[in-house]
C-alpha cells in the first residue's frame, strides 16, 4: 500500500514538472498585461486628469502604437476622452475639457510658439490676442514694452496682462464661452469690428492649405473672423497637430494669414507650399 502511494506521488510530481515545462499561452499573457495596463491608465487619468502618450510609453515600456491603441479602446468605452498627444478624464464632453487640462497638451511646443510670437510685439503697437492655451503662453512671455494696447476676448489672458505697467487692456463684450473662457456672440463681433489693430495673434482648432482655417463652433469662428478683419497683419499660432485637420466652422482662407508660427514637427513640404503663397512660416 505504501509502495503504491509512493509510486502515485512520484507520478503526480512528474506530471506537475511536465506542466511547469509547458510555456504559458502567449495570447493569455498579452491579454492579462493589456488589461492590467489599461486599468492602470484609467487610474492615472482619474487621478491626474490628463495623461500623455510619451509619458505612458516610458512608464510601461511599450511602443507608442500600443499606448495609442489602449487610449482609443478606453475612449470607446467612455472611460476617457482622446486628445492630441494623450487623453483627459471623461468628466465633460471633449469641447468642455478644462482649460488647464488642455494647456498641458503639447505644452513644450506651445511654449516655444508663444515665445516666438511674443518677440514680434513692439512698443506703441495695438495688438489683438485671441483666446486659447497657446495664446496664454504668448501672453506670459510678452516683452516689457510700453505703451502697448492689447485687445482680447479672453478673460484669463486679460487678467494675465492687465497688471503690466504701461499696458492698456480692452476686453471685447459678449457671452461667455465655457470651452474657451472667452467672450463670443454678436457683441464681441461688433466690438472687434469697430477697432483697428496693428497685428492679431490668432489661435485655431484646425487648418488646411486648401480649406483654410476652421474652428469648433460658428460663434467662435465668427469672432476670429472679426479679429482678422480688424488687423493689418495676421499671425497664426498653431502647433503641428492642428494640420492637416478640419473642424466644424469655417473661419477664413489661409490667404488671410500673413505669418504662421508652428513647431519643428510641422511638415517641411507643407511649409514650403505655404511659403510659396507669400506667407511667412516659422518652425520653432
Q: Please give the alpha-carbon distance between the first and last residues.
A: 84 Å
For the largest sheet, list the strands in their spatial order: 6-5-4-9-12-14-15
CATH topology of the largest domain: Rossmann fold
What structural category arises from helix and sheet content?
A: alpha/beta
Q: Architecture of the largest domain, according to CATH?
A: 3-Layer(aba) Sandwich
The helix count comes to: 11
Radius of gyration based on Cα positions = 26 Å
Shape: elongated
Q: Quickly count the domains.
A: 2
Order of helices and strands: HHEHHEEHHEHEHEEEHEEEHEEEHE
The chain-level mean pLDDT equals 86
Query: What is the number of strand segments?
Result: 15
Assembly level: single chain
Q: Main sheet, how many strands, which sense, barrel?
A: 7 strands, parallel
Q: According to CATH, what is the class of the largest domain?
A: Alpha Beta
Which percent bin holds the helix content?
Answer: 40-55%
Low-confidence stretches: 92-98
Proportion of beta-strand residues: 15-25%
